[in-house]
Amino acid sequence: MPTSPFVASAPTSPARATRDRRADLTVTLVALALAVWVTSGLWRDPNGRAITVNSSDQALFEWLLAFGGHAVSHGENPLYTYLINVPDGVNLAVNTSITVYAVVFAPLTYLIGPPITFLVILTLNLAATAVAWYWLLSRHLVRSQLAAAIGGLFIGFSPGMVSHANAHLNWTAGWLVPLLVWRVFVLRRPGHWLRDGLILGLLVAVAFSIAAEGLFFTALALGLFVAVWALHPANRVEARAVLPSFLRGLAVTAVVAGAILAYPLWLHFAGPQRFHGTGFDSVIHSEDIAAYAAYPRRSLAGEAGLRTSLAPNPTEENSFFGLPLLILAVGCFVLLWRRADPRRRATLWALGVVAVVFTVLSFGPVAKFDGRRTDLPMPFDLLGHLPVVNAALPARLALVVTPVIGLLLAYAVDQLRRRPVRRAAAVAWTVGFAVALVPLFPTPLLTVQREPIPRFITSGAWRDYVSPGGVLTPAPLALDVYPDGQRWQAYALANRQGEFAIPSGFFLGPGGPDGRGRIGPVPRPFGALLDQAARTGLPPIVTEGTREEVRADLEHWRIETVVLADEVHGAKWAVDEEALRRTLTLLFGEPERVEDVWLWRVGPQ
Q: Would you call the peptide bond into 476 cis, given omega within 30 degrees of 0 as the criterion?
């Protein structure tokens, strides 16, 4: 462990360089193999399978990849669109637009389609996160390649990372974090503040595009770490010496990132269809205290029946380290502390403060233990109403703890290899690492066969029933629970068939309580009727008043054609297609049969 949190790598001998390259290749191949293992269910049939617990988010990110590439190649605004949520459109700057991914991978999306592009990015995200952390550790923080490999692979395939692999292309882009850490500490170098600030500013802009919430958490964690480290008595002299260069570099970073992100930030905070705070309940989406000692679903321990239901959903197992790993992390901290000089203890102290602060903040407004809510208020209750913070889910703050544990594991292994202990102690440490880490070995994500995109869409037949740029809607209307509309649209955009718009959609927009956001638009009668039929299998009673309300909705959305596929995907429950057909027939009369869909022409074309 270095005497400061970051040091430049020293020159290496040719023999050491060869060993390093072999280790680099080995770790990279292991990380890639693990990433393919975790996503193997999708690789069986990328176009025909979906992630079981989060098919809606998968459909959303596939749509974002198709739309982003289409927008850039057609000179359209990639951060605002009227193709969904007609007529108001959607502000993608307040959503997770992943514009950089969409642009970089646009050729692949056009070549092989959004589903496979989504899978490629997801797999690379997992592997790259492990490799990036390994690189930072091996080149700048520890001497042992084994130590760096253990730390990097743990962080890359930690419970939180694997749970977010359930379709979150933003949160699995953890490779951004070690790069940000590296470039922040490089700002200490005298004489290079302009170049270093420019590079960090570009990196911040990329990170904002891919994972704005993750960037926010990283900035908070780095700011806290740097403050605690610099204020420690052992580091005050060094901190004062590097402060001018550091501040100059940060100023350049702010200018560069601010210039690139000026328009996205304006859209985010002042643009149309913005909102303040999400519609997610911060109590529900907070970390249960007992979750830190629990095991995740997608792990060997979870497969053995030791999993719990302490997370709000399977994509948010942000801690779930298991009790043995928590004990091991404390043991590593004690080992390192006892062998450390004052400056090394300053680094450990800063890491410990970051871990404790973010752990406590992750508990949300009030503490929960083993699924039971208490009346004990938590610090997040004081911060959760602040701008920006009110848009964050407190449970995700636990993700910051994962790299701290990974660093402690790497530092401890490095220390044990540099200063060997007695044989009995070495065996005890080896057993401790095995008991803590083996149960957390990831298992593949659960996948399910998803309904195919109708031939009506894939053949391009839809163009005969919708005017150029006109509005088509699937039944039921596209939402997070009914993602077909955006999947169809993504296919049409990626295959250069042209554009059709849809009402509603899966996005975050205004309309929630107290000016907060909500998923999708505020419901209207037509959408509610179709949702009722899809869920319950019972067509509603249709009166003349019902038809008038539906006609008003059709005019509001400018819908020309309503389409019902033979198989409709429900992300949370099975959909009753027959009840939908009967409902639409009551409203609009008998449908046309076109290719493999039922179709109603309801507006001018």
A: yes
CA separation for the pair 299, 223 (Å, rounded): 33
Residue-wise pLDDT for 202-214, tens only, equals: 999 999 999 999 9
Is this prediction's pTM over 0.85?
A: yes
pLDDT for residue 4 is more than 70: no
Query: What crossing angle do the helices spanning 145-156 and 401-418 adopt, rounded to 10°?
Result: 160
Using the predicted structure, report yes or no on whether residue 177 has a pLDDT greater than 80.
Answer: yes
Inform me whether the pLDDT recorded for 289 exceeds 90.
Answer: yes
Contacts of 571-575 with CB under 8 Å at 24 or more apart are: 571/54, 571/55, 571/56, 571/59, 571/480, 571/481, 571/482, 571/483, 572/56, 572/481, 573/481, 573/535, 575/476, 575/482, 575/534
Whether a cis peptide bond, with omega within 30° of 0, leads into 87 is yes
- CA pair distance 584, 284, nearest whole angstrom: 37
Instruction: Give every CB contact of residue 38 below 8 A, 6+ residues apart in sequence.
Output: 126, 157, 162, 165, 298, 442, 443, 444, 445
Three-state DSSP string of 401-432: HHHHHHHHHHHHHHHHHHCCCCHHHHHHHHHH
Predicted pLDDT at 2:
43
